[in-house]
Design goal:
With about 375 residues, this protein is of the alpha/beta class. The chain is built from 14 helices and eight strands. The protein has a domain of about 210 residues: Spore Coat Polysaccharide Biosynthesis Protein SpsA, Chain A, CATH 3.90.550.10.
Amino acid sequence: MNISLGILAWNEAEVIAVSLRSLFEQSLFQRLENLDASVQVVVVPNGCTDATAGVAAEALTRCAAAMSADRLRWQVCELQEPGKANAWNQFVHEFADPGADYLFLMDADIRFTHPDTLLNMIRALEQNRDASVSTDLPQKHVLFKKRKSLFDHLSLAIGQMTQAATAQITGQLYCARGPVLRRIYLPPGLIADDGFIKVMVCTELLRSPSDDRRVVRAPDASHVFEAYTRFRDIFFNQRRQQVAHTIYVFLRDYLSAQTGTRDAGEIVRDNNADDPDWYRKLIRERVAGGGRWVIYPGAFGIRFRRLKKLPLPQRIRKLPATLVGFILDAMVLVAANAFLKSGKLKGIWKDTKTTQLGAASDGSATDGSF
């Protein structure tokens, strides 16, 4: 069994060594010989202005020192151009072992909270032949606080509602079958990759109706990430997500109309090669022709639709969090609409670094006008 694990990093010098130590404490690395498996670890710093690449190389040298070179290979592949989508494309299609059975994608600012997380994510795919992607349980760092504020409890309640939705992929960590992921290409500058990848996987590149069974959550698998705890960070993150989802709708509509002899992956691949700016041109055209309101239909009711899917006792318990989330959504959606209408994506990523867990950024940078 061949495994390639890509760690996409943007200015994570302060935390990546800790994340790599946590990674190498995973039971998978101690059981490679028994599993007759090999692992390739690739760190992809992209557009970094700090020492991420050097810190990663030093940490990998230490972590891999006691391991067999036949079972573990590692490298740091630094890219000058920032952007998670570009780093993702480079890892999946250039740096990863082309024969890898499984590909992991991981952010550089998470820590594992279960020792068998990676192993159980692989097992989830081996035991579910219909599944193409496995995920773990993302845990907010406030979950582990001894004294939680009212805001902490509210944040956790909202997060639980999001996790209750089916077939959720979080870009922080997921595992996919190699042949499936290698058919997918991301548009340069894509703001959020996880939602796009979910749709590509669940619809077989827009060639079949969506099947949520293609994404499974592995049992006994989890990681912790730093949740947003300041209102401005929450606001900017929510605005980014709404802008990203609206752009995803633009992409879905475009790719659905283009799909014919080529699938969606091939269309994106060819467009990227022919005109790297095609994605921004598409956004410009859709925003210009969308009138005053360009946010995707149904945006205001999404939390209530999620609430409706829960059992009645949970609906009652989570109603206050839903109402608060709806009020926040209303403010965010107006701001997201204005942001899109401004004609620029510059500033969509805000610096949210704190000292609580390391960098709160998810490793992407998107800049410039569309």
